[in-house]
C-alpha cells in the first residue's frame, strides 16, 4: 500500500464531527515545513515555501484570487502613499529615475567622463532635471532650473532640500523678467493641492536668494514739463480718502472717473505668479532683490533678512505679504519692519514702519517716480493697515461649526429628561436631520467658495499713514509725477513750481520737518492680481493726499506771509502817522 492509499484510508475512517482545519492539524501524513524544505531543489523554491507556509499552510499553488489581492494591496498602498506622503513619494521617485537614468547611460555609453572639466554652474541636462523642473514648475508661472549635480534633493525635517536652484520667468511676457539664484530651497509636496489645481508645492523655505527683476511698463506715457501749454487735470483719488474730504462730506471717488479709465486700470493687472497657484507656509531668509523699472540705470534694492508668511496665494500677493507674521529687511539701506499690531482686540491690524529713506536715491533710480522733484532729504513712513480677519484654523473645524452646535443641542434635548415615545421619536428625527445637515455642510465646497467670493466683495482695507519729511530739497523735474492707476498727474505745473519754491524756502531746523497724516479705505478685491504696491489705487490715493496736504501748507504759508506784510505795513503807517502828529504838535 503506497502513501496516497494510506491517506485516503485514514480520511475515510475519521469521524464527521471533526472540522476540516482540525483534521488537517491531526493528519499524521501531512508534510511538514521541514519536509518541504528538504524536498526543495533550488533557493527560489525554498523562498516560495517560506512565503506560502505562514499564509496558506498547504502546498497548493497561488490562485488568481491571491494574485489579485496582492495586486490590489500594492496599488492601494501606493495610492495611499502618494496622497498621504507626497514628499517622500517624490523623493523615492526621483532617486529611482536617477538610478535608471544612470544605468541606461552606462549601458549606452553616454555617461559623462569624470575627468572632463565641467563648469560649476552648468545646467543639468539629464532627463530627471527636465522632468523635475517641469512637474514642480507646472502652473507656477516660472521655471525651476537645476545646476549640474544638484537635481537630487535631500530629506531634512520632512522637506526636500535642493541646492543651487535657479528661477527664471516665462519668455512669453516681454514686460517682465526675473532671474533668481537660490542657494538652498526646501519644499514639501501636497497631492491634495495639486488635485485642487493649486500647485504641487506646499510649504517653501528659501535661504540665500539673489534675484534681479526687470519690469517695463509703457502703458502710461509721461507728461513733460516743457510741453504743457495750459492747466492739466490732476488725479482725483479713486479710493475713499478721509483727509481729502471732511467728516460731513465723505465722498467715494469712483463716480468721478470714466469707465475707460477704470477698465484700463483693470487691464494693467499682471500678477507675478499664476493666480491659481497657492503656497502654504513661506519663509525667506538672507535674500537680496534688485528691481529695474523702465530701463533704470540704478536698481531699487530690497534686502529681506527674515520673512514669515502663513500663506502665499498667486492672486493675493500684496494682501498675503502685508498679512505676514513678521518681515524684517531694508529698502535702499533703510530698515523696514512688518508685524502684527499688539492690541487686545480681535482686529487684524498690521504695522509697517520704514526708517529714514534717502529720497535722492529713489529719484535717481527712477526719474519718473511719484516724488521725482525731491533731490535731497529723508522720509519716514509709519502705516497701520487694518485687514479683514483671516479664517482661523478653529473656525473651519467641525466642532466649531453651526451644524455641530445644532447636533449638540438636539442631543442635549433628547437626553435631558424622559419623554413620551412620540416626543422621543421627534427628538431622534431631529438629531438624525442635524447629523445629515452637518455632513452636508462639511462637504459642501462650492457653497463655501461662493460665500467667500461674496465676502471678499464686501471687505475693505483701511490704511492710516504718517509720513514725515526731513531736510528735503527740490528742483523742477523733466516729467510731472504721474499716478500708476490712471493717466493723470498728481499736481499741475503751476502748483509744482509753487511746491518746489515752498520746500526750498524751509529752514533746516528739526522743527520745520513736514508731517502728513492720512487715512484711506480701499476694497480688498481691488488689491487682487497685483504684484506691485505702486500699481494699486490705494497707493495713489495716499500720494494724492500727501500732495493735497502740501498744497494746503503752501496756502497757509502764503496767508501767513500776507498777514505778516499787512501787519508790518499797518505798523509802519501807524508809526509814520504818530511821528507826523508829534511833529505838528511840536
TrEMBL record:
UniProt-listed InterPro entries: Mdm31/Mdm32
Transmembrane segment boundaries: 67-92
Signal sequence range: none
Domain of life the protein comes from: Eukaryota
Keywords: Membrane, Mitochondrion, Mitochondrion inner membrane, Transit peptide, Transmembrane, Transmembrane helix
Cellular component terms per the entry's GO annotation: mitochondrial inner membrane
Chain's role: Involved in the organization of the mitochondrial membranes and the global structure of the mitochondria. Also required for mitochondrial distribution and mobility as well as for the maintenance of mitochondrial DNA nucleoids structures.
Name of the protein this chain belongs to: Mitochondrial distribution and morphology protein 31
Phylogenetic placement of the source organism: Eukaryota, Fungi, Dikarya, Ascomycota, Saccharomycotina
Amino acid at each position: 500500500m503506497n502513501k496516497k492509499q494510506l491517506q485516503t484510508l485514514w480520511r475515510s475512517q475519521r469521524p464527521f464531527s471533526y472540522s476540516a482545519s482540525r483534521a488537517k492539524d491531526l493528519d499524521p501524513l501531512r508534510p511538514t515545513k521541514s519536509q518541504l524544505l528538504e524536498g526543495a531543489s533550488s533557493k527560489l523554491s525554498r523562498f516560495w515555501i517560506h512565503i506560502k507556509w505562514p499564509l496558506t499552510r498547504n502546498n497548493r499553488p497561488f490562485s488568481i484570487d491571491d494574485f489579485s489581492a496582492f495586486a490590489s494591496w500594492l496599488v492601494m498602498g501606493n495610492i495611499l502613499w502618494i496622497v498621504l506622503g507626497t514628499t517622500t513619494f517624490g523623493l523615492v521617485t526621483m532617486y529611482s529615475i536617477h538610478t535608471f537614468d544612470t544605468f541606461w547611460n552606462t549601458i549606452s555609453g553616454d555617461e559623462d567622463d569624470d575627468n572632463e572639466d565641467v563648469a560649476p554652474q552648468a545646467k543639468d541636462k539629464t532627463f530627471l532635471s527636465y522632468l523635475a523642473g517641469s512637474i514642480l514648475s507646472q502652473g507656477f508661472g516660472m521655471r525651476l532650473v537645476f545646476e549640474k549635480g544638484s537635481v537630487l534633493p535631500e530629506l531634512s525635517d520632512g522637506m526636500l532640500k535642493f541646492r543651487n536652484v535657479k528661477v527664471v520667468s516665462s519668455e512669453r511676457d516681454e514686460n517682465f523678467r526675473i532671474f533668481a539664484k537660490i542657494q538652498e530651497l526646501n519644499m514639501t509636496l501636497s497631492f491634495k493641492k495639486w488635485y485642487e489645481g493649486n500647485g504641487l508645492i506646499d510649504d517653501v523655505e528659501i535661504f540665500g536668494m539673489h534675484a534681479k527683476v526687470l519690469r517695463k511698463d509703457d502703458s502710461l506715457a509721461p507728461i513733460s514739463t516743457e510741453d504743457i501749454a495750459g492747466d492739466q487735470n490732476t488725479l482725483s483719488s479713486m479710493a475713499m480718502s478721509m483727509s481729502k474730504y471732511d467728516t460731513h462730506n465723505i465722498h467715494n471717488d469712483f463716480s468721478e472717473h470714466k469707465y475707460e479709465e477704470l477698465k484700463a486700470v483693470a487691464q494693467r493687472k499682471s500678477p507675478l505668479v499664476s493666480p491659481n497657484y497657492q503656497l502654504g507656509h513661506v519663509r525667506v531668509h538672507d535674500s537680496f532683490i534688485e528691481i529695474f523699472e523702465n530701463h533704470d540705470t540704478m536698481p531699487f534694492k530690497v534686502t529681506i533678512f527674515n520673512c514669515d508668511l502663513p500663506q502665499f496665494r498667486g492672486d493675493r500677493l500684496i494682501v498675503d505679504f502685508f498679512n505676514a507674521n513678521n518681515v524684517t529687511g531694508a529698502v535702499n539701506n533703510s530698515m523696514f519692519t512688518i508685524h502684527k499690531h499688539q492690541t487686545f482686540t480681535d482686529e487684524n491690524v498690521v504695522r509697517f514702519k520704514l526708517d529714514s529713506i534717502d529720497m535722492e536715491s529713489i529719484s535717481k533710480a527712477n526719474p519718473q517716480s511719484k516724488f521725482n522733484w525731491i533731490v535731497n532729504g529723508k522720509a519716514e513712513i509709519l502705516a497701520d493697515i487694518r485687514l479683514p480677519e483671516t479664517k482661523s484654523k478653529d473656525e473651519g473645524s467641525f466642532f466649531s461649526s453651526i451644524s455641530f452646535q445644532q447636533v449638540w443641542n438636539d442631543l442635549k434635548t433628547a437626553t435631558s429628561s424622559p419623554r413620551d415615545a412620540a416626543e422621543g421619536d421627534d427628538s431622534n428625527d431631529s438629531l438624525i436631520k442635524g447629523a445629515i445637515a452637518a455632513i452636508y455642510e462639511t462637504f459642501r465646497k462650492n457653497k463655501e467658495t461662493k460665500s467667500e467670493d461674496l465676502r471678499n466683495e464686501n471687505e475693505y482695507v483701511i490704511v492710516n499713514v504718517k509720513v514725515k519729511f526731513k531736510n528735503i530739497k527740490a528742483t523742477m523735474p523733466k516729467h510731472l509725477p504721474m499716478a500708476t492707476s490712471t493717466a493723470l498727474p498728481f499736481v499741475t505745473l503751476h502748483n509744482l513750481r509753487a511746491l518746489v519754491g515752498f520746500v526750498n524756502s524751509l529752514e533746516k531746523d528739526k522743527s520745520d520737518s513736514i508731517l502728513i497724516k492720512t487715512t484711506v479705505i480701499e476694497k480688498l478685491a481691488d488689491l487682487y492680481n497685483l504684484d506691485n504696491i505702486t500699481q494699486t489705487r490705494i497707493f495713489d490715493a495716499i500720494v494724492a493726499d500727501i500732495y493735497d496736504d502740501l498744497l494746503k501748507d503752501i496756502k497757509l504759508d502764503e496767508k501767513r506771509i500776507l498777514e505778516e506784510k499787512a501787519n508790518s505795513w499797518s505798523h509802519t503807517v501807524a508809526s509814520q502817522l504818530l511821528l507826523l502828529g508829534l511833529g505838528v504838535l511840536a
